[in-house]
Amino acid sequence: MKPVIALVGRPNVGKSTLFNRLTGTRDAIVADFAGLTRDRHYGNGRVGAREFIVIDTGGFEPTAESGIYREMAKQTRQAVAESDVVIFVVDARAGLSAQDHDIANYLRRLGKPTLLVANKAEGMQQGLQLVEFFELGLGEVLPVSSAHGQGVRSMVETALDLLPPPPEDAEDPDGADDGVIRLAVAGRPNVGKSTLINAWLGEERLVAFDMPGTTRDAITVPFEREGRRFELVDTAGLRRKGRVFEAIEKFSVVKTLQAIERAHVVVLLLDATQGVTDQDAHIAGYILESGRAVVLAMNKWDAVDSYQREQVERQMENRLSFLKFAPLHLISAKKRQGLGPLWKSIAQAHASAMRKMPTPQLTRLLQESVAFQAPPKTGMYRSKMRYAHQGGMNPPVIVIHGNSLEQVPEVYRRFLEGRFRKAFNLIGTPLRIEFRTASNPFDE
After folding, report:
1. Does 14 count as an annotated binding residue?
2. Does 235 count as an annotated binding residue?
3. Residue 145 forms beta bridges with which residues?
4. Which fold has domain 4-161?
5. Annotated binding residue 396
6. Does the fold of domain 180-353 match that of domain 4-161?
7. Is the alpha carbon torsion for 234, 239, 245, 250 positive or negative?
8. Is 192 annotated as a binding residue?
């Protein structure tokens, strides 16, 4: 399971800039004034072969008793509770403050692995300026510059080294050597995830209640169907940012993201009575980013009329168009309608995610595709594709070798993806295509 790193500190010390640097995104809004971030932001990061989940938090005021700062402090406490290691960010240029002392006292009482980082340290003599931060009693101070990337890699490596090494017999998150298919059911609160799993099991195994947030954790249930073993994972509903306030839900988001990461197949459950929302698209985007096979299930289809069904179909086209490869099923978990075809698609999606594609077949298909439609010419050169081979499974990865491949446009990548999908019958799984240009031996 990916370790979780929480970024904590007072306002305007550069936590969001550091978050964007670690995740390689611009998901966190950055500006030169305090208090811009108020909710928790989650993102994936990687240093070398080590992956992790990073949480950006708002300015932390542990002693705040009312107003928005109290809610921001509550969000930060939840992020710290979810994390495996805390990176406490201070401002090397502004120096030590009373608020830094309050945060340090709070972190010391928790006893969680903590790394003290002095941000905005570019161009500074890293001696006398950082001495005052030793007053916080959190050990060594690491100078970094999140804006310029200085010291960030070593900072993450040091933070991850604070954690115990994973056990040698840890489960391979991408493999299926044990023969068990991990099936996660994800979606917004109150769309019927627990009801669906109960319908599969034929018993009231999970608490299902008509109130958002009934499930507080990711729950795993063993299940066997037609000779195949499954692990059914009922995840807590992913709420919109700013809506996760209750302390009892503090582990829900991270455990849901980790359940998606560990799954072989994810059933994204939608609610026909509420339509396809932006939050549904957000969850779908995370599943796609994780590379998991996905099947869409529109629940409560029996509870909507013809006009609502037309609206839902239009919303599917507009908001989930990037999941066109995923089969869609119209079901009623409460009445157990449409569950048989759903299982068939789950099996197809898992088989597609684990599909083995021989190199000769891939290369022949690549050459046929280029003969049918050559890549467009860019400038003086045209990309030349020579051969292809499989680079991984779950999700399937196809690596194409040739010359000048960095100029291949996205539209041609999608053309190749469609040809490969049709030839290998890839249903319900993302397909990643990587281009690798051969090095020129005469460059030097």
Report:
1. yes
2. yes
3. 150
4. Rossmann fold (3.40.50)
5. no
6. yes
7. positive
8. yes
